[in-house]
Amino acid sequence: DQQVKQNSPSLSVQEGRISILNCDYTNSMFDYFLWYKKYPAEGPTFLISISSIKDKNEDGRFTVFLNKSAKHLSLHIVPSQPGDSAVYFCAAIMGAQKLVFGQGTRLTINP
Amino acid sequence: DAGVIQSPRHEVTEMGQEVTLRCKPISGHNSLFWYRQTMMRGLELLIYFNNNVPIDDSGMPEDRFSAKMPNASFSTLKIQPSEPRDSAVYFCASRRLLAGLGGELFFGEGSRLTVL
Fold first, then answer.
1. Which residue of A has its CA nearest to B56?
2. Which residues on chain A are in Cβ contact (under 8 Å) with B108?
3. pLDDT digit string (tens) for B14-62?
4. Which residues of A touch B55 (CB under 8 A)?
């Protein structure tokens, strides 16, 4: 039972363009959402988060959008840079409980 | 400050052998998670502890898997006996639980397990 889903296993974007990574969830009780970035042979690192009381959070080139009615969130990276090439995981949490992760999307930024 | 420390980084073993993975969380963190990364399921939660107490172990695949947290600075994940399908990268992560609110997770670098 996959409560958090990332339906695109991979995404390829031209350098300088916008990257949009998508994530869907099924549990309406989730109240906090996070994006993690993972390079090969390293652990995931926190990128950006959003509370369910907001619909947008921005941090430099990274913006996360939350659409609660659609149970959908997305991560926008603009402009995309070669160093952004990594696997991106979205995660959801309910209260003080466990973080549930999606399957990940491998983003490749082409020069 | 040291991050989450996992050992070993790589483990190659034969089917049927016992495997023990170790984790030292960040000092001051009181919540610890064990995840397994696979191609099909992404980051799959195995078990997590709050204040050294196991809260949810519903993700532990089988009785062959067990996890302990004897104190706030150490946890182990044990697989006995190991099988080839257990081959994966196992991540430990920790966070500071504040007043019942969840916080950002900090991950270790992972232990890559290969069972032949």
1. A98
2. 43
3. 999 999 999 999 999 999 999 999 877 889 999 999 999 999 999 998 8
4. 97-98
Residues in chain B within 8 Å Cβ distance of A99 = 33, 45, 102, 105
Of the residues B39, B105, B107, B111, the best mutation for testing chain A's interface (the one with the most A CB atoms within 10 Å of its CB) is B105
A97–B102 CB contact, under 8 Å:
yes
Contact list, B88 vs chain A (CB under 8 Å): none
CA A24/CA A74 separation, integer angstroms: 9
Of chain B residues 4-23, which have a CB less than 8 A from chain A?
Answer: 4
- CA neighbor of A81 nearest in space, from A47, A109, A42, A108: A109
pLDDT exceeds cutoff 70 at A87: yes
- Residue A1 confidence (pLDDT): 65
> What are the backbone angles phi and psi of residue A26, rounded to the nearest 5°?
-110, -20
- Distance (Å, whole) CA A9 – CA B22: 30
Per-residue pLDDT, A2:
76
pLDDT in tens, B64-115: 999 999 999 999 999 999 999 999 999 999 998 766 555 688 999 999 999 9
Please compute the mean of the pLDDT values over residues A82-93 and round it to a whole number.
Answer: 95
Q: How far is CA A69 from CA A1, A22, B65, in A?
A: 21, 15, 38
Distance between CA atoms of residues B33 and B9, nearest Å: 17
